Amino acid sequence: MKPWRRSLFLSSLPDEDKALIERAYALHQQAGWRAHPAAMWGHLDGREQWRHTVYVSQAFAAALMGTGPTKLIENMPSQVGKTTGLMDASLWALDFDPRLRVMYVTYDVSKGEELGGDCRDLAEQHSADLRFRLRRDRGRKGQWKTDQGGGMYCTGINGAITGYPADVLLLDDLFKGWETAHSDTQRAHAFGIYRSQCRLRIQSEHTPIVHAGTRWHEEDVHGQLLAQAAADPDADQWTHIRLPAIAEAPDPLASDPSLRAPDPLGRAPGELLVPERFSAAEVKARHVTLGTYLTAALEQQRPAPEEGNIVKRAWFRLEAQLPVKADEWLSSWDLKLKDKEEGDFVVGQVWARTGADMWLCDQLRGKWGQEKTILAIALMQVRWPQVNAHHVEWAGNAPEVMAALRKAAPAYTINDDDADELGMTADERELVQEIRRHGLPGLLGNPVRGDKAVRLRAQVPYIEAGNVHVLATASWLPGYLDEMAAFPNGAHADQVDCTSQALLKLAKGPASAGMPPSGPIPGRPRSGPSLAAAPGNARGGTLGGPGRLGARPVR
After folding, report:
1. Under the phi-then-psi rule, with left for phi > 0, alpha for psi from -120 to 50, and beta for the rest, what region is 280?
2. Which residues, 6+ apart, have CB-to-CB distance to 314 below 8 Å?
3. What's CA 77's distance to the chain center, in Å?
4. Range list of β-strands (E), 189-282
């Protein structure tokens, strides 16, 4: 049908029917070079198409046409076509439906306006092929409109966002550089702008939202969104496209799902992202210049070195079993800060020492208030009756928690909600109540000396020497190793603090003879409760049973 005949026919239809037919026609026209943004621009200007740009281009097309996930996080190194891909996507979207209002947000207003001007210039250059025309009265570079009412608005994270609707929301590198991304204040500011302004611009639950950028820090905007999605099924759920400069083998122990998954492009480990542009020699030279941490973040899109910062993953020894006997048993606790009652984690760990070797046997971790923390310490005593010393970092609400635990409460009864959240069995519940009714001895408050990094560095030689052993089957192991490796650049340090405190105390103990025999831990019934993690907790592991006691490095 000739364009003029189609226009005449559509003008005779009711608005609802007209919209349906226009949509169907646009979908039909997406075949061939209009199939997705990269295909369109490869056709229009002969641009070289790399496989990763085609991959993210197809993901965006599926999001806009309603055939794929609408919320995308795309992480890739700089200078591999990320921003160009967003430009292409913007104009492709308007070619698909000229009524769409595309919003583009980056770290700086002037950069946003510059991209908007480049998009406008491209639209004018290819006006004969594109299915929209610019309105001449609204053609400035940062904001322009189509004759059909759509258009593009480009700004920065600190620019005007409120009041501008978005049928397509594109966010591109919300941090200008390393200094901004590593500022707690700037990260909170960027995330706050996204939550309170950008996120509220979308026009429906089907509006495509694309966060594209390089990773800088575990708590950058992308990291916070992914953590929010993992913690709350009602939160926005994101499709995370992680494209490292050098493909990596999946890590089954990683807590990040993108690190456990195969490479999205199907690359073999060691294969480059854009060998057509950057050779292996250039990529390696760049990594040497960047150093370990920046390479992990900017190039590999995981803002913590795979092997760790202060502590390397490979230094921990993974064990099939725990010791039956030990020279010393203790628990180590890091509690909430009083002024951060709602946000901090409480962490408790059980440790054993056999000669020069230290064993992390169990862990509880959760966002608990004071009463639940008291019950968690008592529960750890029930599960590990060998423990006769409970070391508590003397900070936050530690004085109140320890005072309550020492004091007998003869009529104490645990409520069902607390017992369920801590995963207590019926027998454990009775024993915890007994402890609360009679009081718990062996509580030791440890004053905090030096900052977190200083305290950990003092214990690093024991870990590096292979003297620290961890149960390989523990459900909390991936998260524990992630935090230890990420420190001091990670989001949390509660497990780090617990470990530093425990190793400090164990290292002062007297030597003993021999290695521990294998088998079940005394005092723990074989048919006792499973240590599978309950919601809000992090613990687990299998004790005893057949098998050879052995160590292997964490990979």
Report:
1. alpha
2. 307, 553, 554, 555
3. 18
4. 209-213, 239-242
Give me the domain span that covers residue 135: 50-299
Residues making up the chain, counted from first to last: 555
CATH number at residue 518: 3.30.420
Q: Answer yes or no: are the C-beta atoms of 552 and 392 closer than 8 Å.
A: no
As a whole number of angstroms, the distance between CA 240 and CA 7 comes to 41
**Residue with structure tokens 């949509």?**
23
CA distance 520 to 545: 6
Looking up tokens 């009714």, which residue turns up?
Answer: 437
**pTM score:** 0.63
In this structure, the answer to whether residues 120 and 67 fall within a common structural domain is yes
Which helix (H) or strand (E) covers residue 281, if one does?
helix 280-294
- Pair 156, 112: CB distance under 8 Å: yes
Which two tokens mark 509? 């103990």
Strands 357-366, 346-354: pairing is antiparallel
* pLDDT averaged per 10 residues in sequence order, the chain, 555 residues: 63 74 58 89 89 96 95 96 95 96 97 95 93 81 91 95 96 91 90 96 96 93 95 96 95 84 95 96 90 85 79 94 95 80 79 96 95 97 97 93 96 95 96 97 92 88 94 94 87 92 89 41 34 33 30 32
Q: How many Å apart are CA 221 and CA 213, to the nearest integer? A: 10
Determine, yes or no, domain membership for 90: yes
Using DSSP's 3-state secondary structure scheme, residue 217 falls into: coil
How many domains does the chain divide into? 2
Pick from 539, 548, 552: which is nearest to 519 by CA?
548
Amino acid type, 111: K
| 235 and 149 within one domain | yes
Residues 217, 303: contact at Cβ < 8 Å?
A: yes
Smallest CA-to-CA distance from 102 within 73, 63, 136 is with 63
In this structure, the strands spanning 551-553 and 317-319 are antiparallel
